[in-house]
Amino acid sequence: MRNFPKVEKVLDFHCVTGWSRLEDKWEGIPFKSVLEIAKPRGHFLVLHSYDGYTTNVPIDYAMREDSLLAFGFNGNPLDPDHGGPLRALIPYLYAWKSAKWLHVIEVTEENMPGYWEQRGYHMLGDPWKEQRYSGLHDFLSILNFRRRRRY
After folding, report:
1. Cα four-point dihedral sign 77, 82, 87, 91
2. Residue 85 and residue 2: Cα distance in Å, rounded?
3. What is the 3-state secondary structure (H, E, C) of 14-65?
4. pTM: predicted TM-score of the whole model, two decimal places
5. Nearest to residue 25, comparing CAs of 5, 10, 7?
6. Is 65 contained in some domain?
7. What CATH number should be reported for the domain holding residue 35?
């Protein structure tokens, strides 16, 4: 990591549940710098966390200027509760796309659903388009809602 350019960016962070954090200072390596050296041949990434979590990200989003491999938050090292020592930060998408405890970056030709996408979340997750859930699932089916019988 020492050979990669380190940057500080003031970025917003949007959770699928409706809250946002605005203008936090993140420190890390531009995701684009790593991908330019790796020269991936696919169109999608699958981000793998140490705990087994996965999420899919179109490579174009990881290549954008503000996408980071983050290791610092508001002037401090990124703590484990927030994804430290290293997390992806894709500020253009909902936070579930910014995998914590990053372990492996897999390049794929196909858009393979990750943990939440397999459970009905949107394959892209653009917060400005409010892409929370897949068109194949409605909110009640995600919750496995059942009507209670009245006797």
Report:
1. negative
2. 15
3. ECCCCCEEEEEEEEEEEHHHHHHHHCCCCCEEEEEECCCCEEEEEHHHHCCC
4. 0.87
5. 10
6. yes
7. 3.90.420.10
Structurally, the chain folds into a number of domains equal to 1
Query: What residue type is assigned to position 61 of the chain?
Result: Y
Q: Which of 31, 7, 13 has the alpha carbon at shortest distance from 82? A: 13
Which pLDDT tens digit goes with each residue over 8-63? 999 999 999 999 999 999 999 999 999 999 999 999 999 999 999 999 999 999 99
Residue 77 included in any domain:
yes
Q: Judge whether 68 lies within some domain.
A: yes
Q: Is residue 124 part of a domain?
A: no
- Domain region containing 95: 7-113
The helix/strand/coil state of 81 is: helix
Return d(Cα 131, Cα 57) in angstroms, integer: 14
Q: d(Cα 36, Cα 141) in Å, to the nearest integer?
A: 41
